[in-house]
Amino acid sequence: MNHPPESEYTQAEAYAPMEAAAADAVLALPDFPGFERRIWAELPCSHNGIDDSDYTSIEIDYEFSLENSGSDLVREAYTDALRDYWTSLGYEITDEYETERGDRVDRGLVVQREDGIVLWYRVVGIVSLTIQSGCVPVSDHGEIEYIPPTGGIEPGSENDLVEEYFPDGIPTDQAAAIDPFANAQAVGALVPFEAPGSYEDLL
Amino acid sequence: MSDMSWKDLRDLECANLRWVGESWKTYATAMVEQTERLRTDVVDGHLSIDNYESDTADTVREQIGLIGDRFEDDLSDYATIRVSTTMLETADALEAEQLELRELVGLIEDHDFEIEGDLHEYEVNPSAALHRAIWDLKPPEWLCDRVGIDRASAWYDLASQADALVHIKPVYDSAKELCGQYQDWLRAIMSRAHDADDDAAAALSAMKENPPELPPQFGATYDDLIDDYKTALTEEVAAEMEAIANGDTDMSPEQVNQWWEDLSDAEREALIAAHPEWVGPTDGIPTTARDTANRVLLDNEIDSLDDQIASIEAQLAGARGYDEGGSVDYDALQAELAALRQDRDDLASLQDQITDDEGNPATYDKTGQSYYLLGFGTEGSGQAIVSIGNPDTAANVNAYVPGTKADLGDASGGLMGRTETMARDAYKLDPGNETATILWLGYDAPDSVAPEAMQEEWAEGAAEDLESFTQGIRATGGEEPSNMTLTGHSYGTTVIGLAASSEGVDADNLILVASPGVTVDTADALGVESVYATTNDLDPIGWGSVHGADPTREAFGATEIESAPGGVSENNHSTYWNESNQTGRDAMAGVITGVAG
């Protein structure tokens, strides 16, 4: 084959549904303490086993703080909550694993949506919700629009690690214009997340 | 070349070597105390300026100081760095191989095999007694177990004997297979032992070639000679550095590190400023110093390429005007220009990767670690050694060795993306202990799957450099050794395997990802404590290995890491860090951070 498999999105198009998926997942997490950091990163894609610079694989990470990463709520209850929630949405569980590491148990829960986006709840030293695009055609960075982070992270703050895509600074006018929940799906009976006035006691 | 036989190694008293090394170290320490007494009791005491004030007295005090300095330098250079460290390093290296050898010889004897052949090409074969037992249809219990048949319990146990007769070829093949594994292991042990022996011999003989200069004796020409001597002292450090960088001293990275640490701050700074081309690539020099030197070299190289490009552009412009069809080879110049522009672009991309907007070393913001440039080059496909985090101070070090088609351009592209991913994975797994993640493209990688990646010459070209690199990381890493992992992908595993089995690599773990073979048929032959291997079910590399046994085979003896493939329509050879393999990524990060499950 000459290229990675067909993707529903280009790189520039993929961020919105990926961010919406993250925001949607947050709604399924009771007593949500807030994320600490958001990261946009990329990995190489390959065809015929060789890296292909025309394609990229996006990874969006939402990390909990180290302190919250140690709580049973985040390590166990959220794994169960997301399993139930994603299953109820008809997402396919593609992997679920557990590893004992000394005095902690690490685990992972992975689902894939029909549009190819992968959601990975990763319970390790720092627990994160990772959203992966799979291989998508590379876009010029100028085409990539800023999308405000979910889960209580202040847009454009030092914990919003997307700077390399916006070297001239976070375009705050775009931040206001894009609704990260536009593609979110209904949450059913779960109580929507209400952001607290301050995260001071939580983070 | 070392003529040590396996019996020599087995019977070697490594403790004697270690005793010699320790004795020289103790001697050097005691002698330095004497020099200190000379300075305090004599120069600053009996002969102090309070007691003797004259030009002659100044000269005498200076002469004693210079002799003391020379004595200390030579104690450090010769007694400590060369003799003592060589002996101790050699004792450690040979003792490690001796331990493996004794274990292996026990297994060979237990299985009724024997060692034959030349000391550089040992063979392990079934003994005559084992041959006889097989032909008598009475193969030993262990061999029956390997083949899955019952051993005849008595001469009248005809059913078992008939089974042995039917399976006589598989029985032989099984015995030969095990012989082959032991042979690989033995050859790897002896290759590394010979390497250590040769390194020690070279380091000690190089010592004789550099007799130390002493200060001039008093006399009519003293004033002239002392100036020359002082000038020579200043130049001596640079000359030593040059000899080290060119490999003329045969010093190990540990010895280089000791030599570097013995220099004054001013000497080190002067070397970095005046000779970055010697400091930057040398294993054993601390990472921060190499990084500083290599960044200067990178700037210089880009400037040099700009000049060359401008020169060729000028030639081509001239050729268009006056030399069309004349003496200038237009096509050759165009090709040269394209190659130079490619190198220039690749180096500029590398520079952008490791430099921030203010021109300072950049930080990988996802882990908060700085980038360090440990080496680069444009030869062949190009080389780059870049670390995320300082390996000298990190608790864990992971060096990623990429494979076929890896090149300089990709060092700031996909290869760096994968390196950064591993850095993030390690950070998430163990945020309390720093992991330095290194892209080690310190070799000219094959440009094609066939024919180049089918050949071992690219790995052979890399083996010594990878050995030296791991030793350098150990030397600069301080007294608390890091948990060090070499992670190879594809042909990168062949590079690691060849280096580990022939030269020896100073690592705790090897992770062999999508391996086409590592040139030996057993993990034991790699001489590293923990060997992990992973190949997903849809990776075509699993259809047949080219450079030895598939390391994921149970018989190879590595611990297998599970890796999930991506889509069935994809070529899954390079998907090990992508969205299909979450389990594998966490497992690899667990090994790298030392919190494996």
Quick recap:
The complex is a heterodimer of chains A (203) and B (597). Chain A has 203 residues and is an alpha+beta fold. Chain A has 4 helices and 7 strands.
Describe this structure in words.
The complex is a heterodimer of chains A (203) and B (597). By secondary structure, chain A is an alpha+beta fold. Chain A contains 4 helices and 7 strands; from the N terminus they run αββααβββββα. Chain A has one domain (11-161): TBP-like (2-Layer Sandwich). Mean pLDDT of chain A is 85; it is low at 176-203. Among the domains of chain B are: 6-101 and 207-279, no CATH class; 363-593, Rossmann fold. Chain B has 17 helices and 11 strands. Chain B starts with 5 loop residues before the first helix and ends with a helix. The A-B interface holds A 1, 4-5, 39, 41-51, 53, 57, 59, 61, 63, 66, 94-95, 97, 99-102, 106, 108, 110, 118, 120, 122, 124-126, 128, 132-135, 161, 163 and B 365-366, 404-405, 410, 413-415, 417-418, 420-421, 424, 427-432, 449, 490, 539-541, 564, 566-567, 569-571, 573-575, 577-579, 582-583, 586-587, 589-590, 595-597.
Question: What are the main properties of this structure?
Answer:
heterodimer; A: 203 residues; alpha+beta; TBP-like; B: 597 residues; alpha/beta; Rossmann fold; nine-stranded mixed sheet; two-stranded antiparallel ribbon; 10% strand; globular
Q: Summarize the helix and strand pattern of chain A as letters.
A: HEEHHEEEEEH
Q: Specify the CATH homologous superfamily of the domain at 363-593 in chain B.
A: Alpha/Beta hydrolase fold, catalytic domain
Q: Largest chain-chain contact? A: A-B, 44 and 45 residues
**What is the general shape of chain B?**
globular
Low-confidence stretches of chain A: 176-203
